[in-house]
Batch of 2 targets.
Target 1
Amino acid sequence: MGDSLSSWLALREPADSRARSTALTRVVADLFREHRPVRILDLGSGTGSNLRYLAGHLPMAQRWLLVDRDPVLLAEAAAPTTGCLVETRCLDLGESLPPEIFAGRDLVTASALLDLVSPEWLGAIARECRESGAAVLFALTYNGRSQCTPEEPEDDEVRELMNRHQRASNHGFGLAAGPEAGEYAAQSFREAGYRVGCAPSEWVLAPEARELQRELIEGWAEAAREIAPDRAAIIGPWLERRLAHVEANRSRVTVCHEDLVAWLPDHEGNSRETVRSLSAAAGPVSGREAIQPLDDHRAVSTRQAIRRA
Ligand SMILES: C[S@@+](CC[C@H](N)C(=O)[O-])C[C@H]1O[C@@H](n2cnc3c(N)ncnc32)[C@H](O)[C@@H]1O
């Protein structure tokens, strides 16, 4: 598993980095302005893409613990700068959540993980984070929406089959929350006493991103065939046409993800203006909606993508 997953993670890392919400990253950085060092737990870390993105945004020094069940991926993780101390631990997080990995953490984070986990697991993580008093940043959670151009008549059906496949998957955490994971996470952290904010982090893949588009589309077709073998006769020709658009340099793909930040009222004392204004916005209504205007350009483009989808 390690090698092919490692190639996929390397292929997607630049798109992930471009997609992430800078507004929510700033919120988290703001919480820890006075901390020396910041102690961070990265769940399902893979080769450390989340570490490489966040290290430059958080105050130095940092102490990271990267946890993943795949030792091959963990072996590739490396500290991006000298101010960062990085440890790794090979662990199946679906089997156990040892309290000591959470103890003393300022921040618990993950990227591209939540759609793989179950609602029950999200509840357990929220309780562990609450227990240790950690703030939270979960980046790049797929929310079930995507858009391809030029359009093909079967695009919606294949996307729905792919979403069904996600909900029917079990990566060791119980049945995956899939496209609803962001909603479940927000609810779990609110129930644990957190304030929650959310912002879009969509991939907008230009025709030049041929390799990433190809892998993505082939993955969608494979998932769709697996969940609905009786639709194989529709999916095969769809795949051929989609890949022909990619090869002809005319394919654009948008995949909608969301980033989520959660913090405790206690954290607000550490922070400056960004968190205080977020907190005010998150007060009377759902924090998920309230925070979107912070990153207004992305919020607008996501709404357009959703309308088109
Ligand atoms: C989509 S990858 C994301 C990796 C990394 N966070 C990134 O953004 O590049 C999901 C990661 O979760 C890990 N994973 C999946 N199930 C797991 C489990 N039960 N326990 C621990 N890690 C798991 C995989 O090995 C993989 O590295």
Target 2
Amino acid sequence: MSAHPEEVSSDDDLVSDVTFSVNRYHFGGFALKIKENTESYVGSHVWKAGIVLCEYFEKEKISFAGKKVIELGSGTGIVGILAVLLGGDVTFTDKSFILKRTKQNISANLPPSCKKRTKVCVLSWGDDQKNFPSNYDVILGADIVYCRSAYPFLLQTLKHLSNEMTTIYISSEMRPNLVSSIFHEKQLPPQFNYETVHRKESENIVVYKLTKK
Ligand SMILES: C[S@@+](CC[C@H](N)C(=O)[O-])C[C@H]1O[C@@H](n2cnc3c(N)ncnc32)[C@H](O)[C@@H]1O
């Protein structure tokens, strides 16, 4: 199996560019300008769990310096962009039709010196993970646990990309009807050690830190 996933070209886009806004976010001294669709497609705007994960990195003064990082379900790219600014060598991933927006936001927020530490690749859970190596230092995912039928594929992907030295941060909005807790409390624990490292009660969002057993 190849461990060299193909990078996405700037033409690989199906997300409409017609209705968008550019919004500003501030974390740890960095000002981010994120282009978001005002239509409701799931990966085309910033989700609250993404903001909370960025706030957690800011609060804990997390550094990704020298770390090989992969983000699952990058969407607009806000979390991965902050991880690059915090020193990481970051592979942004999502379904192919989302990734033009991710690339636009990377270009708008990162100077060329930082852009060298980014890759943007298609990774649809359960289908593409074998194209990636298993030696990431850090795996990031914000609001990626919301579709119950995708849980087995997400689990396969996390297992493939990680080893016992990998730190995984997942930020999840605990929507009762979407049973995120089944993934976090029943499906992850047999294979991963996990702890709750941050909770934003007002938004019902939890940040988990995981390592492979
Ligand atoms: C709720 S959005 C969160 C986006 C971003 N992480 C944030 O916090 O703003 C979920 C993201 O996961 C991606 N996603 C959903 N199912 C996926 C799958 N099976 N494989 C890869 N990505 C997936 C979506 O395309 C979307 O970008």
